[in-house]
Design goal:
The complex is a heterodimer of chains A (392) and B (169). Chain A has helices spanning 9-19, 34-45, 59-71, 82-97, 122-126, 140-155, 184-190, 214-246, 272-284, 302-309, 332-343, 364-376; strands at 4-8, 24-27, 52-55, 76-80, 103-108, 133-136, 163-168, 176-180, 253-256, 263-267, 289-294, 296-298, 314-319, 349-354, 386-387. Chain A has 392 residues and is an alpha/beta fold. Chain A is globular and about 70 Å long. Chain B is an alpha/beta fold and 169 residues long. Chain B has six helices and six strands. Chain B has helices spanning 2-13, 87-94, 105-113, 119-130, 135-146, 150-163; strands at 17-23, 34-40, 55-58, 78-82, 99-103, 165-167. The chains are: A alpha/beta (392), B alpha/beta (169). At the A-B interface, strand 1, strand 8 and helix 9 of A face helix 1 and strand 1 of B.
Chain lengths: 392, 169
């Protein structure tokens, strides 16, 4: 087993991607993703990684190059966030529709304006409907493992979809912490060489991405939706396989002290760790509180999520971006969960909180206050959503 | 940030758990920044900033005029300062009441490295004043980070370790 080392999470992600024997990296630097691509370009320049590094002139070009290289059969990686993601987004829809298993690390950052380089989930949710698989990391170790898993999942013949590996900007990307980078030989065993089902090849000409007239567009869209939904059990299966080989076990939905919890915090990303400290503190006071964390947002693990939260009387659902102006509509995570609850005819008290926007720190005390707020509220008293830590 | 990073790396190298992270704006050399470090015998399960530190290290003495560096400091905590002044002068000028450790890191850095950058120098003061990490544990992370100029940094760090004065609050 490889040893724990201290390393900045961004560098560790780059190292892991390098060990995945990636063929092409096309990326444009943007804070807080910069260290990931900077380190990959170093690995290539220093001869440690036999890959093509394409220093493109924009994120739009980055994803264009990725689509080309992946369509030609190369294992392809890129990384971006925020405005960079927004600029490349039109290509992201194409990558998924062409069923290209590109892996993209997104060091999640807020969107402008006001211009802000810090962490929230604006880019994650901006990407929600692009047809990519979305994996979400809680720790540096998870960011490393999700990067490796991203290639294995995306390239599975039953999946063939691009994978977005989300890690919180700064709150993860710039943390130095202990983690394990798997051995190259172990990764090789887990991740066989990429053999595309169909690739652009002059000797065997094929067309990828032709026009879809009204008589075929609906069918193409239905097929894509089915492909993404069908990837869910395969993702779970590959997580299990990873656990067997590397001893780190992942699920579509993770729980922490949630089995007997009356109040459950539903959360995504690295601040779940801060929530764990809050839960331990509240438990020491005899309060039954737990956490349910979504590791995968697309495809949405609705059934697994429901199983994890169905025993709770109170839900504290955290969103880290607001969908503006939707009347009584919650944040995107709460919206998803409320629709699951409606379908199941299940009605716990739900508090939806907008936290950690544009890098605003989310503290242990914040979590304790949100739990208390929902637990003590009368049914019907909670608003559709609330912004936390707002100076009015 | 460099000193925070090296502290965490040294602690992890020693088999402890540690995390280090910055809190800065768009990168500008010389702008005031904060960086945070946690060191623990058990896994660290939080991502919030450090609001109640045990140790505050101030790399730039001019910050004492604009920042209350004692804010949130835990009981029995220590403030480690880069200053050419005596502890009495510091207390008189700033009103700091906590346990203090002082070293003229700017002078040491200029004399050993010919640059007024005090990251590695101040780590010597941290080791002397707290024993949080070992001096020996820093050499590998410093070598890895600084390559050909690592030795100068290690010298500066060692000299600061020798010259740091600790005065109870």
């Amino acid at each position: 087993m490889s040893k724990q080392i201290g390393i900045e999470v961004s560098l560790a992600v780059a190292e892991a991607v390098g060990l995945c024997d990636v063929d092409v990296v096309a990326a444009y630097p943007i804070t807080p993703q910069t260290h990931i691509v900077e380190h990959l370009s170093e690995l290539v320049a220093d001869g440690h990684l036999d890959a093509e590094f394409v220093p493109v002139e924009s994120e739009h070009s980055a994803m264009s190059a990725c689509i080309g290289s992946s369509a030609a059969g190369a294992r392809t990686f890129t990384s971006t966030c925020s405005q960079g993601y927004a600029l490349m987004s039109e290509l992201c829809y194409i990558a998924s529709a062409l069923r290209l298993p590109i892996v993209m690390a997104v060091a999640n950052r807020a969107l402008s304006a006001p211009i802000n380089i810090w962490n929230d989930h604006a880019d994650l949710m901006y990407a929600r409907d692009t047809g990519w698989i979305q994996l979400i990391s809680e720790s540096g170790q998870e960011a490393v493992d999700m990067s490796i898993l991203g290639f294995r999942i995306g390239e599975d013949k039953r999946v063939l979809l691009p994978v977005q590996v989300n890690l919180d900007g700064f709150t993860l990307s710039h943390f130095i912490e202990p983690l394990t980078i798997p051995d190259a030989a172990d990764i090789k065993k887990f991740l066989p060489p990429y053999k595309p089902a169909l690739r652009l090849d002059p000797d065997n000409p094929a067309t990828l991405g032709p026009v879809g007239m009204p008589d075929i567009y609906t069918e193409a869209r239905k097929a894509q939706d089915e492909a993404l939904k069908a990837s869910k059990p395969i993702i779970a299966e590959i997580f299990k396989e990873f656990g067997k080989q590397f001893g780190r076990h992942y699920n579509l939905v993770e729980s922490y002290k949630a089995e007997d919890a009356e109040t459950i915090i539903v959360i995504m990303g690295s601040i779940a760790q801060t929530a764990m400290t809050a839960v331990d503190h509240l438990r020491s006071q005899g309060k039954k509180v737990g956490i349910v964390r979504l590791r995968v947002f697309r495809p949405f693990p609705g059934a697994e999520l429901f199983n994890a939260i169905k025993g709770a009387k109170n839900l504290v659902i955290l969103d880290r971006v607001k969908s503006f102006g939707g009347g009584e509509i919650s944040g995107p995570v709460a919206l998803e969960i409320k629709s699951v609850l409606y379908d199941k005819q299940h009605h716990p008290k739900v508090g939806n909180f907008l936290v950690g926007l544009g890098g605003r720190d989310v503290t242990v005390q914040n979590f304790e206050e949100m739990v208390e707020r929902v637990a003590s509220a009368k049914i019907g008293d909670l608003p559709a959503y609330e912004f936390i830590n707002v100076r009015e | 940030m460099t000193s925070a990073e090296l502290t965490a790396l040294a602690a992890i190298e020693e088999g402890k758990f540690a995390q280090a992270f910055p809190s800065f704006g768009p990168e500008r050399r010389g702008a005031p920044v904060m960086a945070f470090v946690r060191v623990s015998e058990t896994p660290i399960v939080t991502r919030e900033k450090v609001y109640e530190p045990n140790i505050v290290i101030v790399l730039d003495p001019t910050l004492l005029k604009i920042v209350n560096v004692e804010a949130g400091l835990q009981k029995g905590g220590i403030v480690i300062l880069n200053t050419s002044k005596s502890v009495e002068e510091i207390r008189k000028e700033t009103g700091l009441k906590a346990k203090l450790a002082t070293v003229d890191a700017s002078k040491i850095a200029m004399e050993t490295m010919r640059v007024p950058i005090t990251n590695t120098t101040m780590l010597g003061a941290l080791v002397k004043a707290t024993g949080l990490i070992q001096l020996a544990g820093l050499s590998e992370p410093i070598k890895h980070r600084f390559g050909p100029i690592a030795e100068k940094n290690i010298n500066a760090c060692t000299r600061a370790f020798e010259e740091t004065k600790v005065v109870e609050g």
